[in-house]
Amino acid sequence: MLPASILDAWTSLSPDVRKALVASEMSSSQGGSSQKTLRTNTSVSSFTTGSSDDSVEKSTNNSNNNEEDNVFIEIDPEAGTKTTLRPLERAPKNVFEFKKTTSRETVNVEKSGSSTVTTKTTVMTSSKGWRNIFTLPISYDVNMIPTGTLLTPSNLQLLESTGIHPEGYNTRFAVVDEAVNDIYGEKIHQYFVAQKIELTTIIIPGGEPDKRSDVSVA
């Protein structure tokens, strides 16, 4: 569910600009790619996403290819993500299309009599979207997922958007628009049940007057 400010920004663009952004994203996702790796060990540049705690340092390999110089791979070992970033032609310093691969590993230990069985499972997921970067600085990702799958338990996008937490951190808090809750409230609850997360929610009226932090303070 996108914030109203992001939706407003998108709808404020002219149809031609929106069409060009979508066409660029779709065409580049089908074509070949050239890239250079951004690693965490030797840094010459960095993106900041969200907050300083989410900052990931990256470095670029030397390359004589101009196309390759405009494509970056961002690796975040803590989150288990690999993100390919390519600047869009109409706003190459502010808007980047991205493709993200996330690796999630779980370990299950079961005891049966005198034996112990340890099962390690690695799940790979992928997503794509746009990253918008501003000099204020403001940076956020707009993730694209198949229609109708946001609250499907196998889609981890919503869970990952709640941040990176240590194993055993199984609680979350959410503020939900009452109109959204009327339609999706039960599905939201069941989504977090499936993730074995205890979700605490408060419901607020929709509209701009209620988009203030003190509304959620009880």
Structure in words:
With about 220 residues, the protein is of the alpha+beta class. The chain folds into two domains: about 1-145, no CATH class; about 145-218, Rossmann fold (3-Layer(aba) Sandwich), CATH 3.40.50. The protein is about 25% helix and about 35% strand. The chain is built from five helices and ten strands; from the N terminus they run H-H-E-E-E-H-E-E-E-E-E-H-E-H-E. It has helices spanning about 5-10, 15-30, 65-70, 155-160, 180-195, and strands spanning about 35-40, 45, 55-60, 70-75, 80-85, 95-110, 115-135, 140-145, 170-175, 200-205. The strands form three sheets. The protein has a six-stranded mixed sheet, with no helix packed on it. A two-stranded antiparallel ribbon has the order 2-3. A hairpin with an 8-residue loop joins strand 2 and strand 3. The protein is globular, with a radius of gyration of 20 Å. Residues about 30-65 have low confidence and may be disordered.
